[in-house]
Specification:
Structural class: alpha+beta
Oligomer: single chain
Number of strands: 12
Largest sheet: 7 strands, mixed, barrel
Order of helices and strands: HHEEEHEEHEEEEEHHEEHHHHH
Radius of gyration: 22 Å
Number of helices: 11
């Protein structure tokens, strides 16, 4: 299989000059409605963008709506293969999701049969040889708050393991809808940044694509690797013993899950759902083993005594740096917060997940722009976490400071470079996305007023650059004082 074509520096420079000249010559050209065909998107949103039917609130999960007062009345109105310089590109690959019955996906539990087609080639980063034609798949909805919004996220299960964009072959792929993220790239950017850090065992890789559902353009999505124990993704020992491979998601419970059977609580966090071993095969002894291990680790952190015997500190520090530079409140020991423990090993943080409300895209960031995301107080949005205790320990902060000095500048450079690259490759696609979803300049989800008021895509990306520069300067100063 061919991978992304290498582009020399000379080709990049020439292409960039050509792009600038071409854009100057075409400033009066109207925005395209469809990034592939220039055809206007369907104006009937009632069938192409179904709303969730009877999406129930999970009584066992902490604050499933993410906040009690989201804006629900507004009108709807990535990587293993890092991208080369993108100056001569202007559109994303297209993925066509088609259900056999021609109807929308309305369930997060029941799969619908269908096909997936992938079109790449001219104007994209990828060679046409990786295109796919009508491959059998199943599809269902996914997400908590994101499922309630008009632009739907999906899980796609292929009928056999298949590679997409050179990523390791798998049956399961996540389609993140980016509705609450008007930059369209927050999850992708966090993936690129996370893969720059090397102490987390697995950081899901993503690819930005245009998605068509039953022939109707749906907008810009991320195709992401799913967090699962599998070859090429997260590798853990799955032998049926007590000290086996465990995958835990804090805040990962669903309606009907049972305390001490499916999940456990500690003094520092609640609703720690044991995803692996799966409930069908997990024994009572295994549940007791991992519960006791994490509770002992929690007690060691709170007392600042012997916690390194339980927790892999390098993975925790990399996880902390990623979540703090991006200010990811949601995943800071609250929900979508994953940790693993392999046979004979320690608890490791990650894989990192769910960054659509990061980079200043949560209204709570306006309240506390110069504080830690993962340090809080009892009964607040995040609550007291391990970081409240560890940042009081000179032994821990010394390691954190050394790691930040090692990777901080590189991580920042990677982030800003990726924003620049994405801005070029996504141009036509973002225009079509916001013609389909007329939300620029309108408040959606949990975004703060300063982002809600931005009326252009260029302003959205400028906000992200400004955010990162401000956040990096604050972290330099704060960590430097340790």
């Amino acid at each position: 299989m061919k991978t992304v074509k290498k582009i020399t520096f000379i080709t990049f420079a020439a292409a960039l000059i050509f792009l600038i000249l071409a854009s100057c010559a075409n400033t009066s050209e109207p925005a395209t409605a469809d990034p592939q065909t220039d055809a206007p998107p369907s104006t009937d949103a009632s069938t192409d963008h179904p709303t969730a039917q009877g999406a129930s609130t999970d009584p066992t999960a902490p604050d499933t709506s993410r906040d009690p007062t989201p804006d629900s009345t507004s009108e709807p109105v990535t990587t293993l293969l890092p991208p080369p310089p993108l100056a001569e590109y202007g559109r994303l690959p297209s993925v066509y999701l088609t259900t056999n019955d021609g109807k929308s996906v309305t369930s997060k539990t029941l799969y619908k049969e269908g096909t997936l087609s992938l079109k790449v080639g001219d104007g994209t980063l990828y060679d046409s040889s990786i295109s796919i034609s009508e491959h059998s798949m199943q599809i269902k909805g996914r997400g908590h708050s994101s499922w309630k919004w008009p632009k739907k996220p999906y899980i796609v299960k292929m009928d056999k393991k298949i590679s997409l964009f050179g990523l390791p072959a798998s049956k399961d792929w996540i389609f993140q809808s980016n509705y609450s993220d008007k930059s369209l790239i927050r999850n992708h950017l966090a993936s690129v940044m996370g893969n720059t850090l090397k102490n987390m065992d697995f950081v899901p890789r993503t690819v930005l694509v245009d998605v068509y559902f039953n022939g109707s353009y749906q907008g810009v999505y991320n195709i992401s690797e799913r967090i699962e124990i599998a070859s090429g993704r997260l590798t853990l020992d799955e032998r049926m013993e007590n000290d086996t491979g465990y995958l835990i998601e804090i805040g990962g419970t669903e309606e009907g899950d049972v305390l001490d059977v499916d999940y456990f609580n500690t003094n520092s966090f609640i609703h720690a759902y044991v995803k692996n071993p799966k409930s069908k095969t997990r024994t009572t002894e295994q549940m007791a083993f991992i519960t006791n291990y994490v509770m002992e680790a929690d007690a060691a952190v709170i007392s600042l005594t012997g916690y390194e015997e339980y927790i892999d500190i390098p993975s925790l520090i990399d996880w902390f740096i990623l979540h703090e530079l991006t200010y990811n409140l949601d995943s800071s020991f609250r929900r979508s917060c994953f940790m693993t423990k392999d046979t004979g090993g320690k608890l490791k943080m990650g894989p990192p997940w769910d960054f659509d409300l990061a980079f200043g895209n949560h209204f709570r960031y306006n309240n506390y722009p110069n504080v830690w995301a993962s340090v809080s107080r009892k009964d607040e949005y995040v609550g007291v976490t391990w970081m409240d205790h560890l940042l009081r320990d000179p032994a821990f902060t010394s390691k954190l400071k050394a790691r930040w000095n090692e990777v901080g500048d590189e991580l920042m450079a990677v982030a800003l470079n990726e924003i620049d690259l994405c801005e070029k490759v996504i141009q036509k696609s973002q225009e079509a996305n916001f013609k389909t979803w007329n939300i620029l300049g309108k408040k959606v989800a949990f975004e703060p007023t300063n982002i809600a008021n931005l009326k252009t895509y260029e302003e959205q990306l400028r906000q992200m650059r400004d955010f990162l520069n401000t956040r990096k300067a604050w972290m330099d100063k704060t960590i430097g004082a340790f």
